Amino acid sequence: MSEFEEGIIQGALPLFDRLLDYGFHSENDSYVHEFPIQGGTFSLHVSIDFDGTMDTRLIDNETGDEYNLYKMPSAHGEYLISIRDEVKERLKDICERCYSLLPHVGKEFGLLMDHFLSHHGEGIEYLWDDENGIIRRKDNRKWYAVFMKVPYEKVGEPKEGVCSIVAFRGNPEDVDMKTVFPGYHLNKKSWVCMILDGRNDPDDLLRRLERSRALALGKGKKNQPCLYLVRLFDALPEAKRLFDVLSGERKEKALRYVRLEDKTRSAVGTLLIRKATGGKPISLIASGKPYVEGGPCFSLSHGGDYIGLYAAPYEVGLDIEEIARCSMGTVPHAFTEEEAKEVTDKESFAKAWTTKEALAKCEGEGILTPTKVGFSRFADGKCVYKGKSYFIQTTVLEGHVMTLCNERKASFPEPITLSIADLLEE
After folding, report:
1. Which domain holds residue 78?
2. Which strand ranges, in their side-by-side order, compose the sheet holding 400-406?
3. The model's pTM
4. Are residues 251 and 158 in the same domain?
5. Residues 139, 232 within the same domain
6. 214-262: pLDDT as tens digits
7. Which pick of 9, 117, 274, 290 has the fewest CB atoms within 10 Å?
C-alpha cells in the first residue's frame, strides 16, 4: 500500500459485508473491484486484503500499460490532476461506505479478521455503530466475539486512555488481570475479554477465540434432529489431538487402519457420535447397526472430504459419496433395471446410490442390503422402499452428494459444519 492509499484510508479497517454490497468480490484472499475512470479510458483496479491493506492500479485500456503518475504528489498537469481527483473521489466513497472510520487497530485485530474469514467465512458485523462490532456463527447466528473500544479502567487496568478489546465466551477462572480480564458489559460468568494492544501470544489468542466459537455452538435441544459435518481436510492436521481424546476400544479401532485418512475418519466418527448422543454407551442390533438406549437414533457416513452424522428421535439414514469416485462400470451390478435408466453420469449415479444406502440404513440393514432391491421415488420427496414410505433429501456438496432419509418428517435439519475445536469441546 503506497502513501497515496494510506492518506485516504488513514488507518480505518474494511467492513467486509459492506464491500460485498458495494460490488466487490472475493478473490485470492482479497476483495477486488474494477471501476472505469475518465469515461472508460482507464480501469481502476482496487484490491483490499483482510488486514485492510488497499492496493490500486490504474490501467490504460488502449495500451494495457499501468499508469502510476496519479500516485506521485510531485506530478502535475491539468489532465493528470483530473485523473487523480477522480480516483481519490472513488476511493473516498469506498472508505465512507465500506470502512470503519473509528477502527480497532493493531496486528491482533487483523489476525482475528483474517483467521475467522478464511477458516469459517465469518467476518465482523457493526450492529450499532462503526466502532463496536461482533462476529457470530453462520449456522446458529450466536455471537462468539465482541469488539469494543473502552477506557482501560473499565476492564480493570489502572491506565489512562482508551483501548480496543475483544470479549469472548470463556471461563472466569482464566482471569489473571494481565492478559485475560472480566467480560466487560457482558455476563461475567461466561464471558471474558482481552486487550488488543500487542501484548497477547497470537496462538493463545486464536485458541481462546476458537474455543469461544465452539461454546457458541451450544449443546442443542434434547431430541432435536441435527446434522453435523466435518471436513477431512480440516481434521487431518489435528489427527493426533483426535486420537489422544479417544480411549480403549475406540482408539484401537481407529489406529488399526493403515492410511492416516481412514484413521482420522474413524476418530471423527467416534467423536461425532459422542457429541450427538452425549456419550451414552453404544450397542449393536443383529444387523450390526449401532444404537443407544433411549435415543437418539443416528446414522454415520463418510465419503471423500466429508464425515457426517444425522441424529433424531426417530430412525434416520445418511450417506455421502464423492462424485468423482463413482464408477459407471458398476451400474448393472448396483441398480435395478428401472434405477439404471436414471443413471446417466457420475452425479446421477451418486444421487441414486446415496438414496439407496440412506434408505437401507434407515431401515436398519445398511450395506448388508442387497443392491438389487429397488426403490420408487416420488416428486414430493417421498420414497417407497420394501413396501414402506420414507422421506428423502439429496444435496450436492462441492463434488459430493449427500442423501438424508427418515420415516417421520418431511423436513430435515440444516447442516452444521463443525471445526475441530467444536468437535473436541465437551
Report:
1. 3-98
2. 316-322, 400-406, 388-397, 382-385, 375-377
3. 0.61
4. no
5. no
6. 888 876 555 678 999 999 998 999 999 999 999 888 899 999 999 999 9
7. 290
User: Quick one: cell of 56?
Assistant: 490500486
Could you give the number of structural domains in the chain?
Answer: 3
* Cβ–Cβ < 8 Å for 200, 192: no
How crowded is the C-beta side of 187, counted as CA atoms within 13 Å? 7
* Domain co-membership, 127 together with 39: no
| 278: confidence class by pLDDT, cuts 50, 70, 90 | confident
Q: Are residues 286 and 412 in the same domain?
A: yes
d(C-alpha 214, C-alpha 407), whole Å? 31
Are 193 and 78 in the same domain?
A: no
CATH code for the domain of 70:
3.30.1820
- Same domain? For 164 and 252 the reply is no
- For residue 10, the model assigns a pLDDT of 65
Strand duo 415-417 + 226-231: pairing: parallel
DSSP-derived letter for residue 294 is T
Region 155-179: mean pLDDT is: 89
Let me know whether 406 and 299 are in one domain.
Answer: yes
Kindly state the helix (H) or strand (E) to which residue 47 belongs, with its residue range: strand 42-49
- In this prediction, residue 393 carries a pLDDT of 93
What the block records as the C-alpha cell of 84 is: 487523480
